[in-house]
Write a structure and sequence with these properties.
11 helices; 14% strand; two-stranded antiparallel ribbon; Rossmann fold; 8-stranded mixed beta sheet; binds adenosine-5'-triphosphate; binds magnesium ion
Length: 332
């Protein structure tokens, strides 16, 4: 999927920003500072898939469509694991629109260890790495109202993205981890392919919303993993229904694929899962609190840890338990 013009603007701004000596140490990504495009040794054939160092299992959270709640699901899954004592990390592979710094309320420049690997930032017992820690936020010039423009050559941009992705995948010092959750960017394009080609992924979780249009994209995402020999652990239906905070009544706001707004699942996500032979992992309600928790950097699984009964927290935990069991993690 091509970035929108706003994204492209951001890429360019960030790409150029990396050329400046912004960091107290050498540019952590090793990206070029000169005005000439970098050259990287051309590799022949496909890169070999390899394990991420010190990481036992890798789970990718994905959706072909943007904005369906991948990052929200990914971070709550990872936190569910971490809160159960499973050593967990989350890698934000969304270079153009990193979400993890906001979701975990983390910022700042990661340290480099003695092997020149990036040291993850941690919150709520969850280790994390994101492009958002490495690059400065886009500066919108309030005084002039000037929006930064992308002037990076496309070929250069592509190389930088590949290089950055490579570093994020292979140069982070995770320490021993039982599981690393990859929060993938939306789509089934080059970035997703690079990740799938370079890293051994133990399983993918596909996030969709109930609408036909999102589901169709989810099926496309399924196809990508199938072609890349990555087992699909199942589908999550996010924003499945709206639970009224006052009376608890559940309303299916989005069409569930059957042409009606309140009917069964004969043509929706569950039916599609059956058709594809994929497990349906569960529903997450459309809930203002889930969004609010995410925005303030304390995702629901942590925010409602002490709540007596939190259906939305339980929804994430139930999905995490299934995923954990599927990839052989101990769930206590
Ligand atoms: N179940 C939910 N209830 C309410 N709001 C939600 C829910 N899930 C996600 N959101 C909100 O929807 C927005 C998009 O979610 P999120 O960033 O997780 O999607 P994404 O698929 O990762 O997006 P992108 O494709 O841009 O990476 C966020 O504001 C998030 O807080
Ligand atoms: Mg996201």
């Amino acid at each position: 999927m091509w970035p929108s013009s706003a994204d492209a603007t951001l890429i360019g701004r960030r790409a150029f920003s990396t050329l400046r000596p912004l960091f107290s140490h050498d540019n952590p990504l090793g990206l070029p500072r000169s005005g000439t495009p970098p050259s990287f040794p051309r590799r022949r054939g496909l890169p070999e898939k390899r394990k991420i160092r010190d990481v036992k299992k890798v789970v990718a959270v994905s959706s072909a469509k943007g904005g369906v709640g991948k990052s929200t699901v990914a971070v709550n899954l990872a936190l569910s694991f971490a809160r159960r004592g499973i050593k967990t990390g989350i890698l934000d592979t969304d270079i153009f629109g990193p979400s993890i710094p906001t979701l975990l309320n983390l910022s700042g420049e990661p340290r480099l260890d003695e092997n020149n690997c990036l040291v993850p930032l941690t919150n709520y017992g969850l280790k994390s790495m994101s492009m958002g820690y490495l690059l400065p936020q886009t500066q919108f010039d309030n005084a002039t109202g000037e929006v930064p423009m992308d002037t990076t050559p496309i070929s250069w941009r592509g190389l930088m993205v590949t290089k950055a992705m490579h570093q994020l995948l292979h140069s982070v010092s995770w320490g021993p981890l039982d599981v690393l959750v990859l929060d993938l960017p939306p789509g089934t394009g080059d970035v997703q392919l690079t990740i799938n080609q370079e890293v051994l992924i133990d399983g993918a979780v596909i996030v969709t919303t109930p609408q036909d249009i999102a589901l169709r994209d989810a099926v496309r995402g399924f196809g990508m993993f199938q072609r890349m020999d990555v087992p699909v652990l199942g589908m999550v239906r996010n924003m499945a229904y709206f639970a009224c905070p006052n009376c608890g009544h559940q309303t299916k706001i989005f069409s569930h694929g059957d042409g009606h707004h309140s009917h069964g699942d004969d043509r929706g996500v569950i039916a599609e899962c059956k058709r594809l032979g994929v497990d349906f992992l569960g529903d997450i309600p459309l809930d203002a609190q889930v969004c609010e928790d995410a925005d303030r950097g304390m995702p629901t699984v942590v925010a409602e840890e002490t709540a007596e009964r939190s259906a939305r927290r339980q929804a994430f935990l139930d999905i995490a338990e299934q995923v954990a069991k599927k990839i052989g993690l101990e769930w206590h």
